[in-house]
C-alpha cells in the first residue's frame, strides 16, 4: 500500500510578483568618511533609532547601510544586540523601501533599540525612510 500524496505546500511556490521586482543589492558602510558624509545629510528620528540618509548621486544600484551604537546604549553586549536587531531590520526593510544610490546610517538609542518589539522596530524604519525620501524628492 502506498501512502497518499502530500498536498502541495504554498511555501514551495514562487511568487511571480517577487521575481518581477528588481533586487536591491545592499552593502555595508565600513569607512569613517562614509559615516561622516551621511552624518552631514538628512536625519529622521524614531522611537527606536535615528536614521541618516544621503543620496550619493553616483548612479549605481547599490544601497549602502551602516550601523552604530554609542556607549550610552550600554556595555558591549547591549551594543552588539542593538546592532544585530538594526542589521536584521535593515535587511528586511531596505530590500523593499530602500532607494538605489543612497547611503543609510542607523543609530541605536539607549534602551529603545534593544527592548522595542521587532515589528515596531521595522515599522519605525519604514516610517523614517518614507519621511526621508519624501524630503529628498521634494
List the topology elements.
Elements: H1 16-20, E1 25-28, H2 32-39, E2 42-45, E3 49-55, E4 62-68, H3 76-97, E5 102-108, H4 112-115, H5 118-137
Parallel strand pairs: 1-4, 4-5
Antiparallel strand pairs: 2-3, 3-5
Q: What is the helix/strand order?
A: HEHEEEHEHH
Q: Counting H and I runs of at least 4 residues, what is the number of helices?
A: 5
Strand count, sense and barrel status of the largest sheet are: 5 strands, mixed
Quantity of strands, as a count: 5
Q: Uncertain segments of ≥5 residues (pLDDT<50)?
A: 2-19
Instruction: Assign the CATH class.
Output: Alpha Beta
Task: Return the CATH topology.
Answer: Ribosomal Protein S5, domain 2
Subunit structure: Consists of a catalytic RNA component (M1 or rnpB) and a protein subunit.
Family: Belongs to the RnpA family.
Region (Disordered): 1-20
EC number: 3.1.26.5
Protein architecture, described:
A five-stranded mixed sheet has the order 1-4-5-3-2, with helices on both faces. The protein is globular and about 40 Å long. The protein has five helices and five strands; from the N terminus they run αβαβββαβαα. Mean pLDDT is 84; it is low at 2-19. It has one domain (22-137): Ribosomal Protein S5, domain 2 (2-Layer Sandwich). Strand 2 (42-45) and strand 3 (49-55) form a beta hairpin. The longest helix is centred in the middle third of the chain and has 22 residues, at 76-97. With 138 residues, it is α/β, with parallel strands linked by helices. One of its GO terms (cellular component) is ribonuclease P complex. It is an enzyme of class 3 (hydrolase). InterPro entries: Ribosomal_Su5_D2-typ_SF, Ribsml_uS5_D2-typ_fold_subgr, RNase_P, RNase_P_CS.
Amino acid at each position: 500500500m502506498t501512502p497518499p500524496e502530500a498536498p502541495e505546500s504554498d511555501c514551495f511556490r514562487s511568487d511571480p510578483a517577487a521575481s518581477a521586482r528588481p533586487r536591491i543589492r545592499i552593502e555595508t558602510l565600513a569607512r569613517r568618511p562614509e559615516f561622516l558624509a551621511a552624518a552631514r545629510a538628512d536625519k529622521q528620528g524614531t522611537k527606536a533609532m535615528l536614521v541618516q540618509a544621503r543620496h550619493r548621486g553616483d548612479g549605481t544600484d547599490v544601497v549602502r547601510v551602516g550601523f552604530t551604537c554609542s556607549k550610552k546604549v550600554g556595555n558591549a553586549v547591549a551594543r552588539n544586540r542593538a546592532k544585530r536587531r538594526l542589521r536584521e531590520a535593515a535587511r528586511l526593510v531596505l530590500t523593499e523601501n530602500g532607494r538605489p544610490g543612497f547611503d543609510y546610517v542607523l543609530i541605536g538609542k539607549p534602551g529603545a533599540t534593544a527592548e522595542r518589539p521587532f515589528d515596531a522596530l521595522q515599522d519605525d524604519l519604514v516610517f523614517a525612510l518614507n519621511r526621508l525620501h519624501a524630503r529628498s524628492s521634494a
